[in-house]
Specification:
This protein is an alpha/beta fold and 259 residues long. 41% of the residues lie in helices and 19% in strands. A five-stranded mixed β-sheet has the order 2-1-3-4-9, with helices on both faces. Helix 6 links the parallel strand 5 and strand 6. Helix 5 crosses helix 6. The longest helix has 14 residues. It is elongated, with a radius of gyration of 19 Å. The two termini are 22 Å apart. The relative contact order is 0.17. The structure holds cobalt (II) ion. The site of cobalt (II) ion has 2 residues, from loops.
Length: 259
């Protein structure tokens, strides 16, 4: 019997409560791949160091984990990333994986959450199904991460898929890229919106969701909206808590291509 490992890689989060989103995806992936030994890696060393200090648990980087798996005699390694887009973090992961080509009989990697159009449609459909029924004067705003990487274009496609499914007052902005909050605000002001629902478009409702989105400080999205006169309602659910999101990752892991 050849030794097979399933490694699930995420950015990680230092918020133990938010980690349940990652754990849900790990558990669902694990159940879909019986016969594979499960391993976790976090790409963020900052997050790993903080967890080690506070909880005494060390979570390896993908490269460290791959070294351990090679030493332990694993022949097959399937890597599933829990990243949302094929951005910088995902590319860094692929680089680490490529360095281990030849160390295993088979080394494969599954695509991030948003890969082909079907993924965008599946995600937006799942989000619309869970969304409260919006009254005439309500809008829903999602906060994506955003990046300088060309994959940032993905966020505009997410919003398009909401429109395609008839959701006219659902918007997507990002913390670190475009569309930014100002553009979302400009569009809200053109409609008779008085109440805005806010939620992260991120795997975990971690640091960005708790502070940049829902924080009480001046610059948070919640505060900005309230200072513009909107009522707000925050939904702190990470995408990783959704079954449909787990299903997309499971499909990507099943279709994982060899490196
Ligand atoms: Co960030």
């Amino acid at each position: 019997m050849s030794k097979k490992a399933l490694m699930v890689v995420s950015f990680g989060t230092t918020y133990p409560d938010a980690r349940r989103a990652i754990e849900n995806l790990e558990e669902r992936l694990c159940a879909a791949f019986p016969g594979y030994d499960f391993y976790r890696a976090f790409t963020s060393r900052m997050v790993a160091r903080k967890i080690e200090k506070e909880e005494g648990v060390y979570i390896p980087s993908p490269a460290e984990l791959l070294g351990q798996l090679a030493d332990a005699g694993y022949e097959e390694v399937c890597c599933q990333s829990l990243h949302v887009i094929f951005g910088q973090e995902y590319e860094k992961l692929m680089e680490q994986l490529r360095a281990f080509r030849g160390r295993f009989t088979r080394l494969s990697a599954g695509a991030p959450l948003l890969w082909d159009t079907q993924d965008y449609l599946r995600l937006t459909r799942a989000l619309l199904e869970r969304m409260p029924r919006l009254a005439e004067d309500e809008a829903f705003v999602f906060m994506g991460h955003g990046t300088e990487h060309p994959a940032n274009a993905a966020y505009a496609l997410v919003e398009n898929c909401f429109r395609y499914q008839g959701a006219e007052r659902v918007y997507v902005g990002t913390v670190e890229g475009f569309p930014h909050l100002d553009y979302v605000l400009a569009r809200l002001s053109r409609r008779e919106v008085t109440n805005v629902h806010l939620a992260p478009l991120m795997i975990v409702a971690g640091d960005h969701a708790q502070n940049d989105l829902a924080g009480e400080e001046e610059g948070s999205w919640k505060s900005r909206l309230e200072s513009e006169g909107y009522g707000t309602e925050v939904h702190l659910t990470g995408l990783g808590e959704l079954d449909e999101v787990a299903d997309i990752f499971i499909d990507h892991c099943k279709q994982a291509s060899p490196l």
